[in-house]
Structures are given as structure tokens and as C-alpha cells.
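Internal tracking record. Fields below are filled automatically when a chain is submitted to the structure queue. Please do not edit lines marked as system-generated. If the sequence contains nonstandard residues, flag them in the REMARKS field before resubmitting.
Queue: standard
Priority: normal
Entity type: single polypeptide chain
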Amino acid sequence: MKKWLIAASAALALTTTASGAFAEEKKGTTAEAVTYTNNGQAVSPSSTAVNLDGHLYLPLRAFGEVIGKYVDWDEFRNSVALTDVPTLSGKYKLAAPDLAEGIKMGIGSSLLHLSGDPDNVFYTTADRGPNGDATVNGKSVKTFPLPAYTPTIYKIQIADGQINILEQTPLKVNGVDPVSGKADITGLPNIKDRDEAAYDPKGEKELAYDPYGLDVEGLAYNPKDDTFWLSDEYGPSIVHVKRDGTLIERIVPQGWAAQLSAPLVPARETLPAVYNKLRQNRGAEAVGITPDGNYMFMAMQSPLRNPGKETDGSRQLRIIKFDLATLQPVAEFAYLTEDASPFADLKQSDIVISDLVAVNENTLLIDERDKNAGDKVQLKRIFSVDLSEATNILGKYDDTATAGKTLEQMTVEELKANGIAPPSKRTVVDLAAFRFPYEKVEGLSLVDGHTIVIVNDNDFGLGSTSPENGTELWTFKLPYTIK
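SYSTEM-GENERATED OUTPUT FOLLOWS
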């Protein structure tokens, strides 16, 4: 028998509350020979039970697995959250004609359900269009096989195991885009020497920069004025769009507008200047609007390079909150991603946010994932995130003046020392356990409070040898309601 200190993440003594359970550390000896059944069937918990003063205790995480509950530990609040595991209720595949030879139809970089629509109808987007990597004269370049591709909002319907495209709304300006020569915009980057350069399909000719080009990743809806908002990785920016696809305005970081001329889409520099320090192609990944239309949230995909590339492995991702009436930020939160160290061969920098749903002013659903696919998937989870006790860090840790370190430079212990509490989170769906096969789970929606819907971005199937499109939408029935 070996001595065992029960870590807080697998604590034994609990006091339950309405929001979770609070843990107390205990010491005991392991009891390896115990066997277990659940509903008459043999089960094997992932951790051994403990004999403590003549009583048998099973660590919470292992116990949760046995009884069908997710177990999440919040070290900032010393609390444990137990959540029922949902049921996989539907699978749907996209069957659509290819865009060109070797280029599949792409959707799935976002997912949105509008209140009042049928439960099986959604809106979605693809991103900036097909793009790949090529090596030319020893130099790695980003190629755009379809440089005239127009970022588009798609209305889709799921039925009989298929995803059907009902409507397509190309994004456009009220005038002429200087690159496309028409109202439709392109997915090409905006600013030379800041954005990743785009090349023709052969990787030989650098393409023009489009001041209105968008790499669309997130999609939200404001019921107050019947408009969409898109999150764009390039800016990073958040773009206001009419229902007919016309760009109205663009929220950008301070100092952004001086770098290019884009008179057809006014730029509002209300994002803090620190957002200019994004890692290329890891910008504004997710956007959500509360059902009452009062607030908008935007999440960055990865940590800011603040002050530089050395913070790529930070666990702190920024979520910013806007008052939609003024388009001014009112709060910012340090979202703490999962720790990569317990996983096998997983880099911290490969854990990202991919979408969000604003359930209300204090509750978000967040899609957090690794960059693996198939049997290598380790972390793909949908979390319910509570902002009510999180620290508002807006304007406080953008540089070293406040704490001697930027937000991105801090360790977990330094966050605690500075009184920075990230939002609390609990697992709603563990997609890895359901063996979702694709890397880029990038679309997330909630229907009627009890159905979680996710979809993947297939990256237009570049490099794929599968005859299928490679886009799947799954639905999960929750045994409770999120509201």
C-alpha cells in the first residue's frame, strides 16, 4: 500500500452548493483490489480508490466517469463542478458540388441559430477561401487557388442525415471593391507587411491586398436591428453586416485605420491597441451577441504576442465585451485554456478557442480544442463559462506598468497573486470522448437551451483524398437546460 495525497482535482470531502462542490484535501492509502459495477456491469475507474480511516473513497473524477458526469476543478475558487453527460442525437454530412477540381465546398467556420427559426435551420460561414502552402525557390508562401473567392453567409438546413444549403449571401461593399472590381469583396489580406502575403496558385506572383478583404471566423446576430456581426482574423476586427451582405462598419484596434484606406466601410478604433499584437491567422475567432441585443463578446483564437512570440504558449486568451449601443468595450476577461502538460505531445500553443455562444450577459458557451484529428484528438470540449465572478482586466495588463508583466506573460500563480480570476468553466460536451473525427470544430450553436450543435471547417478539402466533402454537423441533447 502506498501513501497518496488526494489532489484537489480528485478530492474526497465535498460540500455541495447550487453552483458546484467545494473540495477538501485528505490523505489515505490506495485500495487497488476493489472491483466495481454500475447497473450490474463491470466498470474500471481511471483512478484507484482510497482507504481513509476505514472508509472507502473513490476520487471524484473517476467517480464522475462511472456515473456519467463530467468533473471540472476550478483552482481559483476551490470548487468542483459535476455536469451530466449529453446524448449524441444526430449526425449530418454536407453533400455539395466541389468549387473546383480538388477544392471542396466549404462551410463551418461558424454556426448560428436564430430564435424563431425552425430548430434545424442555421447560418454559417466559411473563412477567407481556399488557401494552401507552397515552397518556391526555397521560400514558403501562402497560395490562394481561387483568389476571387467571395466570403459568404450561408443559410443551411439539416434533415435526413444531410446538410442542405438553402441560401447564399456573398459579402459586399456599397460601392466597388478595388481588387474584385465589383461590389463583392475577396478573402485576401488587408495590409502589406502586417498580414500574411497571398500568392497565386503557383506561388509565383504576390496578389493584391484588399482593404475590405475578410477572413471570416465567427457569426452573431443582433435582434435589435436585424443585422449580423462577423469576427475577422485579419484585423483582428468585428464587422457589422446587413442581412443582404453589405458591410456597414468595422471595429478595429486603435491605430489600425491609419494603415490603409477603406472609406466604404468606416473603421471604429474601439478595440484596445494591444490587439494589434496578434499572431498571424490567430485573430478574432469568435463572436456572440446576447439574446436581448445589449452586449457583444469577441474571443481571440490564441494568446496575443504581448510582448512577443515568447508568449505563444500562454494559457491566457482574451475575451472582450462590448456595449452594442455605443460599440465601446466595457469589460475584458482572461480566459484560461486547459493545461497542455497532462496530455501526450500537446503544445500549449496548439490549444485554441474556435467559437462562442452568448447565452446571456454572464454565461458563454466556448469551443476549446487542440489541433489534432482522428485518433490523435485529445482535447475538444464545449464549456459553459461563467463570467459573473471573473476579473474585469480591461486596460490593466496590456503592458508591464501594472504588474511588471503583461497578461500573456503571467503564470497561473502570478494571476492569483495579482487578483486576476479567470471565468469559471465546466464541461458541457467532451467531443473527444464521442470520437468526433475532425480537427477544426469551429461552429457552435445552442438551440432552445437544451441542444448543442457543432460543425467542423473542412478547409475546402485541400489535400484530402476522400470522396466525401468532409464537413459534419453533430447535435447533442442535454439532460438539463442552459439559460
